[in-house]
Every structure is written in structure tokens, then in C-alpha cells.
Design goal:
Elements (H helix, E strand, L loop, with lengths): L1 H32 L3 H13 L5 H17 L3 H14 L4 H13 L3 H14 L6 H10 L3 H12 L6 H14 L2 H13 L8 H7 L5 H7 L5 H21 L3 H14 L5 H12 L4
Length: 279
């Protein structure tokens, strides 16, 4: 009788353990999706350490924990988890895309581009033409950037930031007049005229640099800072296009310093300065 009681107790305990592990696995994904990142890390870690997950489940848990680390801006920890997920499941396209984004935040643009392209090979729905267009810009591969942005814009003609960066890459290739014509045509189709329309007007010569900065003077301090940082970048780029390199450098430095790290202008300013031998 005692043996039977002990067996029943062990079965109940084992069942409770399995239930707890199943809850951790489910909560790992749910809390990550709900932006509860500290909880997600705890649940994912418990699921990973349970030793009861299949390779696919374990890869999912690593990927979700990586996403939580990424969201807390711990990109090194995120990349380590994505690496583990991809070791278990090399064709895990979602993990490749997530690692690409972490690499991009780390300024590891070649790695980001390689992961996006690998994800596209696994499943064409992971095209990410927009992201690849910006990565080509950061890498100085302007012709590929222009082609990628043009392809993206066929389905997304109203993406103002892509329109602006497409203008820059076309102008850098040497097609300044064609780039300006395209910028005018593309922006004429936009339904709303709001920021960054002053930057567009500046590049088209409708307003000067001083007027662009005046229009960046938003009453909201956060918005003002972000608009001025973007204006610094584009003013610097305009000076580079006119071969006024010395005058461009302080503006690019200001954009690099003041723009949030995930802004295109932050990445763009950093890579332009590097190409100018200023890093």
C-alpha cells in the first residue's frame, strides 16, 4: 500500500512539473508578444532549462527570449539567443530576421544583410526590401540601394523616408537631376504634407537650409530634437552632394550624436563619417 501511495505522489508531482513546464513554454511566447519583456525572459529561461522541450520548441524559446533581450536593447544577449535558435533550426526564418535587426542595431550591416537574404531564400515572404535598401546605403552600395528602394516602392509608393533616401542614393550615383525629378514626382503623389515635407522642399530647392531648421522647431521637445537631428543629417548630405565636405562634417556629427540610435539618420550619419575617414 505504501509503495502505491508513493507512486501516486510521484505521478502527481511529475504531472505538476510537466504542467509548469507547459505553462512556461506558453508564457514565454505570450509575454514576449505582450511586451512584458522581463517576464518573458524569466518564462523562456525556465522553459529552456526544463530539459523537456523538443528542438523546435527550444528554438522558439531561444528566439522569444532573444526578442525580449532585443527589446530591452541588450543586443549581444539577443544575438546569442538567436544563434542558439538557429543552431537548433538552421532554416528558422523568423529567427534570422530577428538576428538581422539586432545586427543592424549593432552596426554589423553585412551580418544583417546576410541574414535578411538567407531568410528570403527560405521563404520569399521574408523579402524585407525596405530594410535591405537602407543596409545597402549604410554599406555604400548605392546602386543596389537605389534598385532595392525602387522595387520596394512599386507596392509602397507613399513611404516618405524611402522616397527621401532613394533621392539621396540616386544623387550620389551621379544622377542628381533625375533624382530631383523622381523626388518631385514621388512626393507629388503624397496625400498629406507633414514632416518630413520641409526636408523634401529643402532638397528640391523650394526652401533654404535656415527655413528647414526653422520648420523643425516643434513645440514638443522630443519631436523638436528628432526633427532637428534629421534636418542636420539632410543638410549634411546636401553639402556632401555639392562637394562641401568640410562644412558637411559638423552636421553629420550632430546627427550621429543627437538622433536616436535606431533612426536611419543616426546610421546614415555614422556610415557617411566613416566613409569620410572621420571615425
Amino acid at each position: 500500500m505504501l509503495r502505491l501511495i508513493l507512486l501516486l505522489i510521484s505521478l502527481v508531482t511529475f504531472g505538476d512539473t510537466l504542467q509548469a513546464q507547459a505553462q512556461d513554454t506558453a508564457q514565454c511566447a505570450a509575454t514576449a508578444e505582450a511586451n512584458e519583456f522581463d517576464l518573458a525572459i524569466d518564462h523562456c529561461t525556465s522553459a529552456i532549462q526544463s530539459g523537456q522541450l523538443s528542438d523546435q520548441e527550444l528554438a522558439n524559446a531561444f528566439s522569444n527570449r532573444g526578442f525580449a533581450h532585443h527589446s530591452k536593447r541588450d543586443y549581444d544577449a539577443a544575438i546569442r539567443d538567436y544563434d542558439r535558435a538557429l543552431t537548433l533550426q538552421p532554416k528558422y526564418a523568423d529567427a534570422l530576421v530577428r538576428r538581422a535587426r539586432a545586427y543592424q542595431e549593432k552596426r554589423h550591416y553585412e551580418g544583417a544583410l546576410a541574414d535578411y537574404e538567407a531568410a528570403t531564400q527560405i521563404d520569399p515572404k521574408f523579402a524585407f526590401e525596405r530594410s535591405k535598401g537602407f543596409l545597402f546605403f549604410y554599406l555604400g552600395r548605392m546602386t543596389q540601394s537605389a534598385e532595392t528602394f525602387e522595387n520596394y516602392m512599386k507596392a509602397n509608393p507613399d513611404d516618405t523616408w524611402v522616397i527621401l533616401f532613394r533621392y539621396l542614393v540616386e544623387a550620389k550615383i551621379g544622377n542628381a537631376l533625375a533624382a530631383a525629378r523622381d523626388l518631385e514626382v514621388d512626393t507629388a503623389k503624397l496625400k498629406e504634407r507633414r514632416w518630413p515635407s520641409p526636408i523634401i522642399d529643402f532638397h528640391l530647392g523650394r526652401i533654404d537650409e535656415k527655413a528647414m531648421f526653422a520648420l523643425a522647431n516643434d513645440p514638443d521637445p522630443k519631436m523638436k530634437s528628432e526633427k532637428i537631428c534629421a534636418a542636420n543629417f539632410h543638410a549634411g548630405e546636401a553639402r556632401l552632394l555639392r562637394a562641401h565636405v568640410t562644412a558637411a562634417i559638423p552636421l553629420l556629427r550632430a546627427a550621429e550624436k543627437d538622433c536616436p540610435s535606431h533612426f536611419y539618420e543616426s546610421h546614415g550619419a555614422s556610415t557617411e563619417l566613416k566613409r569620410l575617414g572621420q571615425k
